[in-house]
Every structure is written in structure tokens, then in C-alpha cells.
Amino acid sequence: MSDVMVDVRGVHKSFGPLEVLRGVDLRVRAGEVTVVLGPSGSGKSTLLRTINHLEKVNRGWISIDGELIGYRRSGNRLHELKEKDVLKQRTHIGFVFQNFNLFPHLTVLDNLVEAPVAALRRPRKEAVGTARRLLARVGLADKADAYPRQLSGGQQQRVAIARALALEPKVLLFDEPTSALDPELVGEVLDVIKDLARTGTTMIVVTHEIGFAREVADTVVFMDGGVVVEQGPPSAVLDKPQHERTRAFLSKVL
Ligand code: ADP
Ligand code: MG
């Protein structure tokens, strides 16, 4: 596949004696949405964190748009990149967390402007223009001067998504983006993600929202015990799961 955007090959990750990822393979094509499902503790967050090198891998490798993440190859050895180069790579990988992680002391607008100016050296005026356009896109044009604490959880998460987009990432990673929200606020955040899916943003979304997966995912990946148990289109994995562990999980969440 020539249009693979995210390539995860044979990734192993341990924390001390605990092997959390036990050989994960995953390929995400440009413009596609992959939804990752799996029980708590199956390694979903750790997988996302290895993709932007918040965690080092013990074995295997990850590339985005053909570029190794966190390492450079020399002969058949991998050498870890310097922190500065890792940070540069990370600007291409948007990450949206369960708990929003906005900068509380900055206005909504400045939350979106900070990284493009500091990390990408964009002129502030240009970054402000982009930020306003993105806030309009997530329906929050009127909140530019508010502080995060003045917003609902759903609004904060929409700001977090706009902030991630401000760096024009090659891929957006979402770790349970609606799990911390009151039920009535889940829909507005999923609607923003759906809109991104329609416009061809490459995304990996960890979520328990099965309806969302069915509607939006090109590929559903079911993880358990640090491995990908099965993957395929939603119609296969959700409606005709091949593995007992997938069936057992779906029977609990559906
Ligand atoms: P999930 O997101 O699927 O719930 P995680 O990737 O968060 O799973 O965690 C998988 C396992 O790894 C869990 O047993 C968790 O306790 C453990 N784990 C995650 N991060 C760390 C860490 N930094 N140190 C030690 N153990 C960790
Ligand atoms: Mg998790």
C-alpha cells in the first residue's frame, strides 16, 4: 500500500515486568478513520502514546508518512532521536486526550495560537487567522476570548480538537475523547469528529462509542491483552466478529 499514513509494525512495550503491547501491527491509510475498541487495560492508550513517542517501544517500529517515529535508522540499527527532533515529529501528530488538557491560563484563542507560533514559527497574525477559522469550524467562534474554565466539557473538547488541527497534523489521535463528558455533551464532540472524517482527516480514535464506530470508521480494530485480536470494516468486526473475545466484549458494550 503506497498511501499508508500510519504504519505500526511488531510493536512491543513493557512497563517493568508487565508486557502491555505484545506485537501490535496496524496500518492506517491516508484519509481513513480507524476506531480502536477493547477492554480497559488492553493497551489502547499505550498504543496511541507509542505512536507519538510519548512512550518508547521495546521492539518493532512506527512510521508516519514514511518517516520513522522517535528513531533514525543507521544500517540495521535504530538510534533514538534527540528530544528536539522528537518534538518536531510530534507537531505532525495531533493528540486529543480524555481530559482536554487545555492551558487553563490562556484564552481559547491563545490555546490555538501558542503551538503554531512557538513550534512552527508561524507569524502570530497568521496563527490568529487560522485559529479563528478553526474555532468557527468547531462552532465556537464566539468563545475566542473565553478561558477554558468558562466552557462546558463539550466545548473544551471542541477547543482541544481545534488546537490539535492548528498544527495541520498528518494524523489525529483521540484517546476516549468523550469519556469524561456528561452524556448530553457527547454528541456535539462526535459531530465535530464526524465532520473531520468527511473531509479526509486521517484519524485513530479510541472510543467505546459503538454507534460512532459503525457510522464513521473505515476500519475497526479490536484489541485485547496487548494484541490486535481482529480488525476489518465495521460490518465485519461489529456484526460478524470472528473471535470469542470480540463477541464477549461487544455483548457488554452494545
Ligand atoms: P487501556 O487504554 O486499553 O485501558 P492502557 O494502555 O492504559 O490500557 O494500559 C495497559 C496496561 O498498562 C494497564 O495494565 C496499565 O496499568 C499499564 N500501564 C499503562 N501505563 C503504565 C505506566 N506508565 N507504568 C506502568 N504500567 C502502565
Ligand atoms: Mg486508555
UniProtKB/TrEMBL annotation:
Cell compartments where the protein resides: Cell membrane
The protein's superkingdom reads Bacteria
Keyword annotations? ATP-binding, Cell membrane, Membrane, Nucleotide-binding, Transport
Q: How does it sit in the membrane?
A: Peripheral membrane protein
Entry-linked InterPro entries? AAA+_ATPase, ABC_ATPase_HisP-typ, ABC_transporter-like_ATP-bd, ABC_transporter-like_CS, MetN_ABC_transporter-like, P-loop_NTPase
Protein name, as recorded: Amino acid ABC transporter ATP-binding protein
Q: Residue ranges of the ABC transporter domain?
A: 6-250
Keyword Cell membrane in the entry? The reply is yes
Q: Where does this chain mainly localize?
A: membrane
Q: Which PANTHER family match?
A: AMINO ACID IMPORT ATP-BINDING PROTEIN, L-CYSTINE IMPORT ATP-BINDING PROTEIN TCYN
